[in-house]
Specification:
The protein is mainly beta. The chain has helices spanning 2-15, 32-37, 158-162, 212-218, and strands at residues 39-45, 51-59, 64-69, 72-75, 78-82, 86-95, 101-110, 119-123, 166-172, 179-184, 199-200, 204-209, 229-235, 239-246.
Amino acid sequence: MKKIILLFAAAYAFAACDPVHEDFSNSGHITASELKAKSSVTVDKAADGKNGNVISCSTSAPVNAKWNIGGKDFIGNFAKRKMKLGDYMVYLTALCADGTELKDSFPVSCEVITEELQKIYVYGEDPALQPPFSPGGWDAAAMRFSDGEGKYLRYLTDDEYFGFKTLILDVSDASADCTMKIMNGWWSAFYYDTNDHPWTVPNGLLEIPINEQIAKDCARGNGGAGRDLQLMIVSGSCTINSVYYEE
């Protein structure tokens, strides 16, 4: 109990990123070199010895740890994520019990697919049941993630919001002037500066990362304000074939 009270204020910033948070700290302080010696980032291996696409991170250091893998945060002394092929920098932020914050980074290269990324559909997994649709300009309900207020897209769960998923929109028939605002259903915030500079919507795949501000505004529990993420076409036109994220 004493340990929890001592660390509550300092660890709150870490815990706010994720609804599940464990305390791995002790009552002392470690150095950056000790953190590096007790931490590792590895990839799985294919049969031919090449690096796979599953990144595993661990630290035995007595700290509160936050890993960032491909732009997604994980709280705890262990983290694992399947990735697309490519080169990455994994970041570790460690909070010592005395409030000292340490940082480290680890370069990683994923060369071959050893575990396929699974698509989790929000819309369009079965085109017969959920056919492609063309959202109208300034139609606030067309792409609001809400069973009650939206036309097509379901609520996102707290795990999806606070898991900081990257939503992927499969887009076709996008006009050259097609642009989108990323906002919430209460019009109280515009994300990624899309109020003044709406995103251009391309043909192909459009990726929209859910960040901490979106999660806090739009999730319905764990401190979320329940305002529903909303994507709104403000000029031009396009067709949305599906919306999903990869796990």
